[in-house]
Amino acid sequence: MKPTLEEIALRANTSRSTVSRAFSRPDLLNPKTVEQILAIAEEIGYRPNNMARALSTGRTGNIGLLVPYIANPFFPPLIKAIQQNADAHDLCLFLGSSGESAARENTLFQRLASQTDGIIVASTRLSEAQVRAHAKRHPITLINRDIVGLPRVLIDTQAAVTDAIGFLIESGHRDIAYLSGPKESWSNQQRLEAAGAACRRADVRFEVIQLSEPSFEGGEKAAEEAVAAEATVILAFDDLTAQGAHARLSAMGIVVPREMSLIGCDDALPAMTYPALSTLSGLSLEAGRHALKLLQDAIEHRESVQDMKVVLGARFVRRDTTGSAPSRSRR
């Protein structure tokens, strides 16, 4: 005979509903109670029946995660954090990557909605109207998109960008180029606004170079434009494009940071580059943990979703790709 919830409840000296909640919403119980129930379940070989749970509760035990570009090093730590926390709550994670296409993201949204209880959407490229339309039909939580009334986790980089620009100006730089990411990106808008404002206050030249794509190759192409514009600093949309820019600068014989300073965003792989990349801390692990908690709340209270917002503050991380301005740029 297969082990049952009733058997676990009897051994744990608790109710069947408490045992059920230990598998479906362990965050609502005392951690010691959850630990005891899971230990008993493991001992007797109990495995939750997700199909039965779906029939009795109307929930699948599945959640979705949509990202715009899975090859971007910012997203693997985010995915890992959500996966680990989903496992701890006995949830199955379905992953979709839109390839920076709003149309594909919209299609993935529709497909995942029929198979999941809720969806975490990271750095969506959809319009606000499209996101709100999906949210009316299915519980969602946003990462790095600030839409009032929807659960969201925001990594605020504006203060970190301001600090980075301040350091560069103190180091003598007067010609700063920003490699701008997708126009639909909330993170890009934040960084662009903060960098532009800091440069205007200091009366230094601020050159905006639109990336052809937010990729290593896009960073390579944009680096050539930054050199042609006689910038002495490249502030890149993210670490991936910064690495592409670094590769192209090296191929052109331009030494970083002696002849060009370089800063990325997200702190995804900078310590693995040589020289180590200066960047803005990414906080993707923290964002993933908070996003799953908000999504669970949205699923649990679907009819009365609150305006829940978690804001994480990034910081400027100075490493080896930033230094004093070359003498030609001093005025």
From TrEMBL:
<dbReference type="GO" id="GO:0003700">
    <property type="term" value="F:DNA-binding transcription factor activity"/>
</dbReference>
<dbReference type="Pfam" id="PF13377">
    <property type="entry name" value="Peripla_BP_3"/>
</dbReference>
<dbReference type="InterPro" id="IPR046335">
    <property type="entry name" value="LacI/GalR-like_sensor"/>
</dbReference>
<feature type="domain" description="HTH lacI-type">
    <location>
        <begin position="3"/>
        <end position="57"/>
    </location>
</feature>
<dbReference type="GO" id="GO:0000976">
    <property type="term" value="F:transcription cis-regulatory region binding"/>
</dbReference>
<dbReference type="InterPro" id="IPR000843">
    <property type="entry name" value="HTH_LacI"/>
</dbReference>
<keyword id="KW-0805">Transcription regulation</keyword>
<dbReference type="InterPro" id="IPR028082">
    <property type="entry name" value="Peripla_BP_I"/>
</dbReference>
<dbReference type="Pfam" id="PF00356">
    <property type="entry name" value="LacI"/>
</dbReference>
<protein>
    <submittedName>
        <fullName>LacI family transcriptional regulator</fullName>
    </submittedName>
</protein>
<keyword id="KW-0804">Transcription</keyword>
<dbReference type="InterPro" id="IPR010982">
    <property type="entry name" value="Lambda_DNA-bd_dom_sf"/>
</dbReference>
<keyword id="KW-0238">DNA-binding</keyword>
